[in-house]
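Hi C.,

You asked whether I'd gotten around to modeling the 350-residue construct. I have! Everything is below, sequence then structure, no commentary in between.
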Amino acid sequence: MAVYIQSAAQISIQSPLCDDWFTDPILREERYFRSEEPDFKQYVDPMSARRMGRLLKRALASAKKALEGETATLDAIVTGTGLGCIETTEKFLLAMLKEGEQALPPSHFMQSTHNTIGSLIAQHLKCHGYNNTYTHRGTSFDCALQDVLMQFDLGALSSALVCANDEMTELYFQLFDQIGYWKKEDVKSEMFHNASSEGSFAGEVSATFLLERDRTEKSLCRLDGQVLMYQPDELRVREAIDELLRKGGIGWSDVDGVVCGYNAARSNDEVYARLMEALFPDVTQIYYKHLFGESFSASAMGYYVAALCLKRGEVPSHLVFKKGRTTTPKHILVYNHFQNKDHSVALLSC
């Protein structure tokens, strides 16, 4: 059963809670850059905000932004997060070391659990229905989305928020740097088109999507389906795409673009380049991590990019990784993988 992405909101290293990045992106070259913060007072009561970690405020603000102007009853909230509120977790652990497990702040402990994010959103939105959290590193959002789609197929939902939330602290940046996660120098745009070394650049993402069963005039696009795969070969990927195209009632030649998670790391990008050359050699390839950085929730922005391209009927030049045949986009595939083990592909249509 197809569902519709009605709205989406993001807080990232681009301008927050808006879509300025689609026409006027901010290009970063630093290896590590934290998200641009919105005016939280518009979305979070200042007294409540004092007790919230930074990621919780971002998650709540993006959820409320995605629901602006919506009147439908919300049935579910499903969250994907790789690290959870890691900044608050650090504060709790450091306080425990400093204080010797005495007089620890309880709010830091409560906010250190991964499902705190979905719970907080539910409390503030008074949504007491289905609530679940997935934490599977780079596929956390994809698993959350898969859960929601299955609930729609079962007829259990008519509307749901799907959220992706991750932050990157300086300490975790340094830890990940030691295992080669990041570039050793500033990130230039040409690195994405000629990935000759490992490592990417760090970003943070809080993204929220409102999914509903029925199309409205505000709908961004239709989500025809998603397939998750573990260590697939090319044949399995072909079969997964065949399955999605049948669901969407289209053929291979109707695909107008493929969104891929190129991140300037050689081993990561080689997987996409090899698959695209074999499966879609003349189709426009679209990328997004040069705008939002790499994080465990970065794949959510691939769906955001595809949805906005379909809604606006164009793919701006700064999102084009490799230009294919020119056409107004009507059907876009979103393809992501994490360490060439966990793969996901989804079909979005206007």
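If it helps when you're writing up: Residues 92 and 105 are 7 Å apart (CA to CA).

Thanks,
B.
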